[in-house]
Amino acid sequence: MSDTRHTKVLIIGSGPAGYTAAVYASRAMLAPILVQGIEPGGQLTTTTEVENWPGDTEVQGPDLMVRMQDHAKAMGCEVIGDIITELDTDARPFKAKGDSGTVYTADAVILATGARAKWLGLPSEEKFKGFGVSACATCDGFFYRGQEIVVIGGGNTAVEEALFLTNFASKVTLVHRRDTLRAEKILQDRLFKHPKIETLWHHTLEEVVGVDAPKGVEGIRAKHVETGEITEIPAKGVFVAIGHAPATELVTNKLELHNGGYVKVKAGTTETSIPGIFAAGDLTDHVYRQAVTSAGMGCMAALDAERFLAAQD
After folding, report:
1. Distance CA 68, CA 52 (A)
2. Per-residue confidence of the chain (313 residues) as pLDDT tens digits?
3. Catalytic residue at 299?
4. Annotated active-site residue in 77, 82, 107, 140
5. Most buried among 45, 74, 232, 295, by the most CB within 10 A?
6. Which of these is catalytic: 99, 139, 179, 189?
């Protein structure tokens, strides 16, 4: 028989938005429950130096998330290591099913499930995932010490990954489909000055080339976007860094979405299309997508939930 837990506020997700919501909801004496999800701590647990978190000139992403979790617990939030697999938005109270078998009921829900890495969808990319193809440099970069590596992308994520990988690789080639990067200028400056990094403009990843015994990557075939000419680049690791997609699986066809799948909220609030359900962080933010703005939205969500519950009472 499954265990059932009830809370005034259920927070789903554990990045900066989720943990900040937990701090504020706890301070409002709402005794929230936070379910961490498949990646406790969110995307910051897969990065290293964070240089734009106010108050810290430099902080390690995983350390920051541990501090946030400890803060939430100290305020009185119950943090549970479970994964929500289903959310019933029709019933009152709302009902969420956990992978553990636990059923969580709540008078209000704060969604802070964040975003996940995007993939190109190539058969060869799928074939070598975990065997030379990765979307997380901080997770897997160590395995490519002294090797040549390729990074695909042109935004902040790609440049940060490329710079980080120079700690291990003998050479990093950044492959980008345009001739300019979208990354912040300070990151671009570091990239262009780094002696280990080369940039291949106007190219896309056509195929990951590898062997089956033992399974591993040997290189890539990159295609010129205008001429179609193929360039072969030797590499033992391929890191796909083309951005992230909001993790909206729980609320697809339930909440109103926009801009490619982000949860739509009422302007100036975290209110979704269903009263009592609030959304914060990368799940709803298609513009800024920063840890500090996610934390700010987590604060807003907790305050919005507090006002919603007070009105219900």
Report:
1. 16
2. 469 999 999 999 999 999 999 999 999 999 999 999 988 888 888 666 788 899 999 898 889 999 999 999 999 999 999 999 999 999 899 999 999 999 999 999 999 999 888 899 999 999 999 899 998 887 788 899 999 999 999 999 899 999 999 999 999 999 999 999 999 999 999 999 999 999 999 999 999 999 998 999 999 999 999 999 999 999 999 999 998 889 999 999 999 999 889 999 999 999 999 999 999 999 999 888 889 999 999 999 999 999 999 999 7
3. no
4. 140
5. 295
6. 139
Owning domain of residue 14: 4-116+244-312
Number of structural domains in the chain: 2
| 290/5 Cα distance (integer angstroms) | 32
77 assigned to active site: no
- For residue 232, give the CATH number of its domain: 3.50.50.60
Residues 217 and 273 in one domain: no
17 and 111 co-located in one domain: yes
Question: Cα 132 to the chain's mean position, in Å?
Answer: 21
One domain for residues 297 and 219 = no
Specify whether the CB–CB gap between 141 and 166 falls below 8 A. Answer: no
